[in-house]
Amino acid sequence: MSDFPQPAAVKPAEQGRLTRLWSSDFAWAFRHSPVAICSMAVVMLLVLAAVFAPLIAPHDPFNPATLNLMNGFTAPGTPNAFTGEQFWLGTDDQGRDVFSTILYGLRISLFVGFAAVLLALVIGVTLGLIAGYVGGWPETIIMRSADVQLTFPSILVALLIFGVAKGFTPVEYRDQVAIWVLIVAIGLSDWVQFARVVRGATLVEKNKEYVQAARLIGRTGPAIMLRHILPNVLSPVLVIATISLALAIIAEATLSFLGVGAPPTQPSLGNLIRIGQGFLFSGEWWILLFPACTLLALALSVNLMGDWLRDALNPRLK
Amino acid sequence: MNTPVLQLDALSVEIPTRHGVLKPVDAVSWDIAKGEILGVVGESGAGKSMTGNAVIGLLDRPARISGGQVLLNGKRIDNLTPAEMRKVRGRQIGMVFQDPLTSLNPLLTIGDQLSETIDAHLHLGRAAARQRAIAALDEVGIPAAKDRIDSYPFEFSGGMRQRVVIALALCAEPSLVIADEPTTALDVSVQAQIIALLKRICRDRGAAVMLVTHDMGVIAETADRVAVMYAGRLAEIGPVAQVLGAPRHPYTHGLMGATPLASKGRSRLAQIPGAMPRLAALPKGCAFHPRCPKAQNRCTVDPRPTVADGAGRVACWFPMGAP
Amino acid sequence: MIAYILRRVFQSAIVLLIVGLVAFSMFRFVGDPIDNMLGQERTMADVERLRVQLGLDQPFVVQYFKFLGNAAQGNFGVSYRQGRPVATIIRERAPATLELAAVSGALAIIVGIGLGVFTAIRRHGIASNLIMSLSLIGVSLPTFLIGILLIYLFSVELDLLPSFGRGETVMIGDWSTGFLTESGLKALILPSITLGLYQMTLIMRLVRSEMLEVLRMDYIRFARARGLSERLVNFRHALKNTLVPVITVTGLQLGSIIAFAIITETVFQWPGVGLLFINAVQFVDIPVMAAYLMLISVMFVAINLIVDLLYFAIDPRLRIDGRH
Fold first, then answer.
1. Above 90 in pLDDT, residue A143?
2. What 3-state class would DSSP assign to C74?
3. How many domains does chain B have?
4. Whole-angstrom Cα distance, residue B138 to residue B147?
5. Which residues pair with A91 in a beta bridge?
């Protein structure tokens, strides 16, 4: 056998992890998708605005001491007829700066949204792992409950939980706990899809060799579930989480709009829109328009991200 | 001299990707005559299926024919409009796919699927088409065809389903049949029956057959000539006895060494070192040279186009057994 | 197959019983029903009398079945807020919601499936991309925002359509319908678009994605390889296989229209059961909440059942096995 030239070998282990991530298919797709970049940018912007609201907002809209009723109904950018103050986006009927109320409202909306999804995720993934890995009675109970709950639209479930919780809470405390009840209500109405996906993926992973190997060397159930199976089922969970976030934000806005969500003392974007609707016909359009646009931008960006993520992580579309 | 049914003239297929342009089929040429069975062998990814798809015009975007010609009964078909090509498919070219379970629409009866195909090409009307369909099922060996024509695909076994698929592919009486791994998804016991069926039907009708497979045994049993593909290029082509018995291309030689044959007794199977290169990383010159025991400097620079060699052709600078 | 049907019916019954339990628990444990029904000036004798009348002195299980029995007969008690029988209130307001739901549903299905098929077949065209982009907005926009936007455009700016209410209605027997008057029909337009838009986008995206999946299947390739026309391939092979999974989801989605009506009715002040429910939640009017819950559940469970049975009619594979 004669010598023949060897092709040059590239040693992949020498490239740094960050470099590999940057040049991976996923990152390439991200960098080349204007949609993904834009929506990510918008989301980041809104999140930062919400987080730093106390620093950015020119006024504190909920401190009665700083409010001046005479400022009410000022149009955006024009000085108030009585006080001469200017507000970027105008004021509402109580003289509150719309820009500030939006910032604080954004805070509530994002907080409730993230917290609710987190709750749904934790519950759903845990139950899904248990259902898939343990099987038997726990699986039947969990999946049947999921089926029953799925028969009803999540908004109804959320409304119900909220209504019942309201019934149980003494009137004085209702405003204070409203936000938490809202989070629980939305979170509990959303865990099912996480559980289903995780259960399905767990069933698939359970039979793979690395799990059997782990069992052979003596690892226990919870350890296997957490350390081995969980990382492998995270990809679809991520996609669902992003889409769930958009849904949770919309759910919160809807509930607040209906008057059964965030309290008037801590209004979210939904409350603001409800208030704004009342002034539609009388001409103070800015009270409605700006909160509405903010909500739209938020929901749209998160949805776009979720959609893009789902396409990017779908192996079959490659 | 009869015009061959199928003529491939330096056919090339390209796929633009973000890694650059890939060439899954590179200047492949061969003929198939009436009534002849050409086996096309090669490893997975060698370009055999892609060639078949190119011939019948079913390349998935973004793959496209980038060079050469395809001639069917002397007429060019690679540059037809989609409407014209649709008339060719089924009527002049029939194709059998690998998996009979997924090839059939689960929600339509096989009678429906047969009748619509017959009707699309032969315009017979419902009753006549149905009669034709029953006859077709009979021909492929489905027992009690008249009763089973209204059954759904899931009511058949794997072998029966593939028979139905063959009936479907042949019911409009094409002159060329492309069979893409027709037995790979079947039980071993059924494979022989299906191959025999295919062979018989095509011989009876005088159809030319392009039989794509990676199973040497099927080739030995069935084909008249065989073409060996490697990394998108044609390595060797010739009569079956010659290519299998006295292979000229080192790759074919290696393949035969790696194929268990009853005649070889219990000698150890030889492995070709290395693996077929990925399309995105083809070596310069002959694609096989990194693994070739006979490679020399010339092989690393220039791939050799096929040259006539006895009753076949081979694409090698230093074919084996050369005088 | 009979076994399957029986099993499904049994499952549905269980779900209804569970929902009934939840509704009943709400009744019993949320607030004190006595408190809610009697005012401040009540005597111990009043309280005791009401207790016995409502059956509150009996064991839980007995009360539960009594509650179910009452519900089955249409007796849901008396509204805390309005003081009238719940059943009457609901019967008055049901036609409004049902008409709205029917129109929205029809809109969603027809336009949704149509556009879904179109964007799947003409996948790479400009029209498809445009429609898909707009559809993303349709899914991201909360229903109430759509409603408000429509009101702003058509009522405030253009003054073409009413911004609230049902317009004039005509009584046909017990049923008040808005279909027979011009103002009634006009009033239906904006709310039904609002209500149906979300469902329509969902259906459209679902049909499109299912159809794209189906168009990738081997049997479609084989159909093309046999030279079948694009029309046959798209509408005979692809569409049928697309609609099978779409039907279940669609059926369930449409059921949820009645629930989503809550939002639309609030935006447009549409006098249906949705608005009734929201007011009930705000006032913690338990009998109304419970009644709404029970009725909605029956409806959903029924829809689920019908959809499952529909599967049989369409997918022949299920008929033989009986397995799901």
1. no
2. coil
3. 1
4. 11
5. A97
Size of interface A-C (CB pairs under 8 A): 107
Q: Which domain holds residue A200?
A: 28-53+96-317
Q: How many structural domains compose chain A?
A: 1
More confident residue, A196 or A74: A196
Range of the domain at B132: 99-173
**Which residue is closest to C163 within chain A, CA to CA?**
A281
* pTM exceeds 0.90 for this model: no
Model ipTM value:
0.86
**What are the structure tokens assigned to C218, written together?**
């081997």
- Whether A87 maps to a domain, the answer reads no
Nearest residue to A158 via CA among A190, A123, A119: A190
Determine, for residues B283 and A28 on separate chains, whether the beta-carbon distance falls below 8 Å. no
Establish if A36 belongs to a structural domain. Answer: yes
Q: Does the pLDDT of residue A8 top 60, yes or no?
A: no
Q: Which residue of A has its CA nearest to B293?
A: A1
**C214 to chain A, closest Cα gap in Å:** 13
Does position A201 have pLDDT exceeding 60, yes or no?
Answer: yes
Residues linked to residue A141 through DSSP beta bridges, in sequence order = none
Q: Do C30 and A168 touch (CB under 8 A)?
A: yes
CA C257/CA C264 separation, integer angstroms: 10
Task: Provide the shortest C-alpha distance from residue A119 to chain C (in Å).
Answer: 22
Q: Which residues contact C186 (CB under 8 A, 6 or more apart)?
A: C161, C162, C167
The dihedral through the CA atoms of B21, B22, B27, B33 has a sign that is negative
Minimal Cα–Cα distance from A6 to chain B, Å?
6
CB contact (8 A) between residue C227 and residue B86: yes
Is B148 inside any structural domain?
yes
- Would you say residue B276 lies in a domain? no
Tell me if A19 is assigned to some domain.
no
pLDDT-derived band at A18, boundaries 50, 70, 90: low
pLDDT of residue A14: 47
pLDDT band at B40 (very low <50, low <70, confident <90, very high): very high
Residue B222 domain-assigned (yes or no): no
Instruction: Please provide the average confidence, as pLDDT, over all residues in chain A.
Output: 78
Q: How confident is the model at residue C85 (pLDDT cuts 50, 70, 90)?
A: confident
Mean pLDDT within B143-155? 87
Would you say residue A288 has pLDDT above 60? yes
- B118 within domain boundaries: yes
In chain B, residues 39-68 whose CB comes closer than 8 Å to chain C: 56, 58
Give the integer Cα–Cα distance in Å for C19 and C309.
22
Taking alpha carbons only, the member of B213, B247, B209, B243 closest to residue B226 is B243
Peptide bond into A79 cis (omega under 30): no
A263 located within any domain:
yes
* Cα–Cα dist B11/C35, whole Å: 88
Determine the Cα–Cα distance for residues A233 and A238; give it in Å rounded to an integer: 9
Chains near A with 3+ CB pairs less than 8 A apart are B, C
Instruction: List alpha helices for chain A, DSSP H.
Output: 17-22, 25-31, 34-51, 53-56, 98-134, 136-150, 154-168, 174-188, 191-206, 209-216, 221-223, 230-258, 269-278, 286-313
Answer whether C222 sits within 8 Å of B95, measured CB to CB. Answer: yes
CATH number at residue A274: 1.10.3720.10
The string of DSSP codes covering C23-47 is HHHHHHHSS-HHHHHS-SS--HHHH
Task: Judge contact between B300 and B283, C-beta under 8 A.
Answer: yes
Dist. CA B36–CA A275, nearest whole Å: 81
